[in-house]
Specification:
Distance between the termini: 45 Å
CATH topology: Aminopeptidase
Number of domains: 1
CATH class: Alpha Beta
Strand content: 25-35%
Number of helices: 4
Number of strands: 5
């Protein structure tokens, strides 16, 4: 496999980077308005760049003390299968382990088969004790 030169930057994606990466990675779409309102709620983010363009991202959102959620793990299809998701998660884990209070609860919703990636970093299914649930506003 060809080794490409990637760099990781710890910053929140721009609205354009965010919407583009979600779209090309096949994640559910959000409006530009929603992205502009939501991105400032980022507690931590890591972006992967290749030749000046963002090709991967991951974010942590939360209340700053008690509850946090890992979201938006996305890698451009042309750059998948190169360990970038793992690199993004390692950046996130380094942040979680060094900056969050010891009692913080970190959750995520894992699409299958991505759950295998998250298990490598210590995330465990919560069922049957608890189940992830979601509600999407539709107008």
């Amino acid at each position: 496999m060809e080794q490409l030169d990637y760099s990781i930057v710890r910053r929140t994606p721009s609205t354009e980077e965010y919407l583009h990466l979600r779209a090309v990675a096949g994640l559910s779409p959000f409006s530009e308005e929603a992205a502009r309102k939501g991105l400032p709620g980022t507690v931590f983010a890591a972006l992967v760049f290749y030749e000046g363009a963002a090709v991967g991202m991951g974010r942590v959102i939360g209340d700053g003390g008690c509850f946090f959620q890992v979201v938006d793990i996305a890698v451009h299809p042309e750059h998948q299968e190169r360990g970038l998701g793992k690199r993004i998660m390692q950046e996130i884990m380094d942040y979680l382990d060094s900056e969050l209070p010891a009692s913080a609860y970190v959750s995520l919703i894992a699409d299958v088969p991505a759950n295998g990636l998250y298990e490598q970093f210590g995330f465990k299914e919560t069922a049957p004790r608890s189940l992830g649930m979601a509600y999407r506003v539709v107008r």
